[in-house]
Amino acid sequence: MKKLIHLIWLSVPFLTAFFLWSASALDLLDQAQIMLEEGRTREAIDMLEKMLNVEEPEELAQVVETLYNLYLQEGEDKKAVEVLKMYIEKFPEAYQSYLFLYWIAKTEEESHNFDQALSLLKEIALNFPEGLPDPYRIREQAWEDFAYILHHVQKRYQEALGVYQNILSHFPENERKLAIMNEMANCYEKLGARERALAIYQEILCQATDPFYRKLATLKIKYLNSEPNWSRKTLTLLYKEIEAAFLSGNVSSLEKLARKGDFWVGQIFSEFEVMEFESLKPYFEEKLKVAKNIEIEKPASTNGFYTMQISNWPDSEYNILYLLIAQENYGWEWKGIILSNQELEKEAPQWWSGINFYF
User: Is 311 helix (H, G, I), strand (E, B) or coil?
Assistant: First the structure.
């Protein structure tokens, strides 16, 4: 929930802290590292490829992992997956094989091959050996990602609930317990079980020591107990009213159109904050007084929700606004804002593809 600017990957850049290398393998890897530092990436790849006949599983895992990252860096995604599969086939019972299988599953998910991703995640979750140490919590993470796809991508809320409950039952010490409970409450919201959702949010409020989850639960309770006069039956109607409020500089109208309870705000490439729109009023009152020639685009479908882009926004640091709109419990709702600018977007033209706004 806190990190919304990226898909959840187990980031394990280097495993050298866990493995012992032979002198020859270490020498070759050192040579490859020198090549990389000198910008000779292709030569480093060629050298590492010659090391794929290493028979020691831990040494080969380091070679494979390094090659995998280099292939991705060079845009050779197919080769990146193939080298992981090669290792898995050679050492199917090694811990690294489950880690690499997880990476393949995430690649399939990122490519929107969700059924294949689900199949691989389920394979990890069900087949991970009970006695095998799991320092990176691969099995637990596989179950969480499995539930995430069922919930947020395929809208199979009842099935997702079963998986979330399974996670809480089998991993009682899960440090993400409150996040999983929040996901369960959201599933109940989508199923129209308002009272069950409220009960979980109340439970989160009682258990949470993290101020983020306390605030989130408080605002979700407010959202579910509010009269939804901010929602509209159609996207077009909501867009027209928001457009008119911005063009006229009417902050009171904007406040009435923003979702009550949890409203999400963030800067491009940052974490998002959950708040109430009321706290943003001073900002909008200041900017709309000096707003001239702002341009408002019609809603565009973007990764499971809609965005309204506002250009020429009078903010010296962020001159683009994105308003986030989605069809939610009560109809079409304006649920958040992203602050952006042209220079930042040049760094990652397809930045939307890595963002999930399933809050």
Answer: strand
Sorted by where each begins, the domain ranges of the chain are 22-126+136-223, 235-354
One CATH from 3.10.450.50, 3.40.50.150, 1.10.357.10, 3.30.70.270 for 235-354: 3.10.450.50
Q: Which fold has domain 22-126+136-223?
A: 1.25.40
**Per-residue confidence in pLDDT tens, the chain, 359 aa:** 333 323 334 444 433 333 344 445 557 777 777 887 788 888 888 888 988 988 899 989 989 998 999 999 889 999 999 999 999 999 999 999 999 999 999 999 988 999 999 999 999 999 999 899 999 999 999 999 999 999 999 999 999 999 999 999 999 887 899 999 999 999 999 999 999 999 999 999 999 999 999 999 999 999 999 999 999 999 999 999 999 999 999 999 999 999 999 999 998 878 889 999 999 999 999 999 999 899 999 999 887 789 999 999 999 999 999 999 999 999 999 999 999 998 888 876 555 555 554 55
- Residue written as tokens 């020691």? 56
Q: Please spell the DSSP secondary structure of 87-156, one letter per residue.
A: HHHH-TTSHHHHHHHHHHHHHHHHTT-HHHHHHHHHHHHHHS-TTS--TT-HHHHHHHHHHHIIIIIS--
